[in-house]
Task: inverse folding
């Protein structure tokens, strides 16, 4: 029977892009359904209001709310709609998804990340498991991402450098800021091993994409040169050019319809006019980012799936993870560095691009009685978002700051200081209090139940985060920063989510098989970060890209 | 970028506190409001002339002008920026209510404390009135909102109606990124 497409993909971000790219290039017909609009590089502006102060790239919470459930100080769980709280878990709803807005800090996962349970043993209250595949299975695909999406960097050996099949990155490192030298010097004096942070940003033109022009506005902003390796710039544009891939923006999928044998027959969606539409295909791929992928499966009950597609063992939505860790920083003052060096510190554009992974595994008997999994620390200059910088001066000693004192503070802060920051990434231990379900009360503008997200964390995550924060603070103080601070908490970073449909060999404890196919639905795959049972101690995008390329090969075998 | 969790205070809480606070000084409200209300008919502005005069005085106190050395809130058109913001189709109705209530609260506080309009008070008396308002949680919340709008008007792209002649950017040596937003592609038109 003739189908609309060989493959229909729901979502268009990092989990979707490689599938569309690989299958369209191989001659298969692909339809991509994306809820958001289709922006091009011409639609992006360096506009702090659009990216960071208002919901320019995410839906209005009054129309598409989510319910967030977190634990109160008395131990009770309280669920509230983010219509009320504004606690927004949406990210980059547009063609290419949130990869359009990423900073593109790209680290590979390491072999140890694939076997967390075997390496470190169980942790009470955490659902730690080994992955059903190994680093060796993923390595060719990490390499493929370097070449196809484009990763710039330079391999420098350090104690936790992962094995590589190729000696170095295909794109040389981006231009570096003067502060990178100061950072290296400080690390050398402390005995830490600083290394260049790889970025999914082109340092030279490649495949109709321009090189980075160092605008100084990267993370949270769309890229105007196509240098940033978003799924749209790096993959979907090429997929569309083959003539085999059709992208339908403003298409809100609300159900995967299954037949009596439990296979997906078609997806139903609302188009831009609000009318009901559908697509049938041989194979379906869900990649709407972790929370919404779980939601879609839970909404899609059918003859063989009474409680949601893939949910016959109650696993859909469970073991949602974020990136644990925290943030911190400190200020460089002109009076400490002198006018000339400070002038260089004020330069915008070039990147810091430095990271530390000395404590990817922590083996410190003074702090922990056995080795534990640690993490990654990335370092950066404060984003050039002036409103956010000014907001730091709103409060002074617990009171609102205004008048001439406020003006003096702003004047000094902007003209005489530069903030240097760090971000800590460690494993968010999967646990029974972090999951997605469907809200019984709250609905979106299409009258569909919305996601309810419980955001419980494991105390162990804080210990790891605090350990790494102390090391990070050492570096900043050695560099000469003042007012060094850090903030480690169990609050989830809403732009770094994964899990919810984890893969594994046992259908009783996982949703997907090791090829990311739903255990009891042979023509349905989930390819965003949902598949990850543990997250590794790095940002997720490179892993999502690599895995999606891996699954594309499995889909080709099945077609 | 790793965002931190937004301060977790619910609207329900504010509304509850709001009703208590609004009782304070309410008997003076009508007396001063009527003087200005009639002048503002049919202008399309969400504020009466009295409100606008009060707001300009509040803004000027929170970020005073030292023009041309450094701009104050009114030099960068915070009131115009605020009015534009409140016209966004998705502007939060709760926030709108708080903004209007806050104007009433500071007007009432000025009359309660000094038997005069806020805008007519000396700098010292304005400071005392605003600090008094700050002692109430709703008052503090409103003042915090006003400071946020001041920062946004001071440092957002002039396409949003504030940052007149890029005065905010020029004062703080801020280099904008390019391309800058155009009127057809502001956040409310994406």
Result:
């Amino acid at each position: 029977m003739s189908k609309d497409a060989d493959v229909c993909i729901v979502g268009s971000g990092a989990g979707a892009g490689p599938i569309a790219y690989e299958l369209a290039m191989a001659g298969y017909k692909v339809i991509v359904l994306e809820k958001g609009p289709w922006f091009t590089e011409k639609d992006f502006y360096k506009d702090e209001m659009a990216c960071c102060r208002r919901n320019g790239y995410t839906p209005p919470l009054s129309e598409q709310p989510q319910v967030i459930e977190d634990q109160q100080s008395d131990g009770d769980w309280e669920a509230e709609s983010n219509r009320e709280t504004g606690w927004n878990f949406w990210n980059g709803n547009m063609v290419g998804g949130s990869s359009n807005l990423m900073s593109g800090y790209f680290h590979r996962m390491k072999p140890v990340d694939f076997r967390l349970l075997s390496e470190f043993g169980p942790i009470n209250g955490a659902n730690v498991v080994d992955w059903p595949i190994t680093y060796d299975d993923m390595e060719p695909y990490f390499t493929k991402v370097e070449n196809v999406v484009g990763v710039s960097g330079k391999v420098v050996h350090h104690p936790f450098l992962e094995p590589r099949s190729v000696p170095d990155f295909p794109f040389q490192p981006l231009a570096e800021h003067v502060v990178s030298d100061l950072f290296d010097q400080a690390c050398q004096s402390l005995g830490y091993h600083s290394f260049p942070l790889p970025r999914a940003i082109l340092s030279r033109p490649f495949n109709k994409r321009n090189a980075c022009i160092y605008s100084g506005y990267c993370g949270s902003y769309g890229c105007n040169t196509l240098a940033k390796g978003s799924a749209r710039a790096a993959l979907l544009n090429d997929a569309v050019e083959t003539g085999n891939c059709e992208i339908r923006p403003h298409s809100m999928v609300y159900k995967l319809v299954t037949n009596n044998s439990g296979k997906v027959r078609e997806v139903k969606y609302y188009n831009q006019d609000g009318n009901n539409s559908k697509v049938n295909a041989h194979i379906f791929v869900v990649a709407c980012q972790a929370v919404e992928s779980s939601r879609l499966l839970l909404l899609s009950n059918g003859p063989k799936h009474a409680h949601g597609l893939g949910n016959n063992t109650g696993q859909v939505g469970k073991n949602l993870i974020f990136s644990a860790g925290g943030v911190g920083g400190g200020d460089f003052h002109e009076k400490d560095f002198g006018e000339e060096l400070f002038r260089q510190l004020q330069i915008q554009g070039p990147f810091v691009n430095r990271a530390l992974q000395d404590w990817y595994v922590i083996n410190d008997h003074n702090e922990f009685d056995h080795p534990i999994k640690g993490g990654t620390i990335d370092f950066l200059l404060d984003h050039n978002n002036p409103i956010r910088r000014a907001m730091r001066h709103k409060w002074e000693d617990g009171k609102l700051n205004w008048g001439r004192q406020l003006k003096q503070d702003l004047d000094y802060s902007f003209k005489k200081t530069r903030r240097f920051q760090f971000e800590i990434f460690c494993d968010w231990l999967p646990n029974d209090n972090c999951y997605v379900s469907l809200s019984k009360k709250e609905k979106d503008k299409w009258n569909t139940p919305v996601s309810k997200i419980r955001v419980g964390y494991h105390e162990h995550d804080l210990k790891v985060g605090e350990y790494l924060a102390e090391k990070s603070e050492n570096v900043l103080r050695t560099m000469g920063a003042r007012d060094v601070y850090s903030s480690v908490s169990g609050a989830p970073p809403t732009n770094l989510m994964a899990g919810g449909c984890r893969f594994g060999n046992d259908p009783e404890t996982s949703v997907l098989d090791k090829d990311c196919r739903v255990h009891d639905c042979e023509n349905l795959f989930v390819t965003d970060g949902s598949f990850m049972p543990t997250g590794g101690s790095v940002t997720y995008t490179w892993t999502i890209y690599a895995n999606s390329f891996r699954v594309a090969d499995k889909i080709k075998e099945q077609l | 970028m790793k965002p931190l969790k937004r301060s977790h205070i619910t609207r329900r809480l504010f509304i509850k506190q709001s009703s208590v606070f609004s009782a304070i000084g309410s008997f003076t409200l009508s007396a001063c409001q009527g003087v200005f209300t009639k002048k503002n008919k049919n202008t399309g502005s969400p504020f009466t002339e009295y409100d606008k005069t009060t707001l300009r005085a509040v803004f000027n106190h929170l970020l005073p002008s030292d023009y041309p050395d450094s701009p104050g809130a009114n030099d960068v058109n915070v009131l115009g920026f605020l009015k534009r913001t409140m016209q966004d189709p998705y502007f939060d109705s709760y926030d709108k209510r708080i903004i209007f209530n806050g104007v009433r609260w500071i007007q009432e506080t000025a009359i309660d404390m000094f038997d005069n309009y806020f805008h007519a008070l000396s700098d010292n008396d304005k400071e005392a009135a605003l600090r008094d308002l700050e002692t109430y949680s709703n008052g503090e919340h409103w003042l915090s909102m006003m400071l946020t709008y001041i920062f946004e008007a001071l440092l957002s792209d002039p396409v949003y109606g504030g940052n007149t002649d890029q005065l905010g950017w020029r004062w703080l040596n801020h280099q904008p990124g390019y391309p800058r937003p155009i009127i057809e592609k502001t956040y409310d038109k994406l």
In short: Residues 93-114 of chain B form the longest helix (22 residues). Chain B touches chain A through 53 residues (CB under 8 Å). Residues 81 and 161 of chain B are 5 Å apart (CA to CA). The two ends of chain B are 22 Å apart (CA to CA).
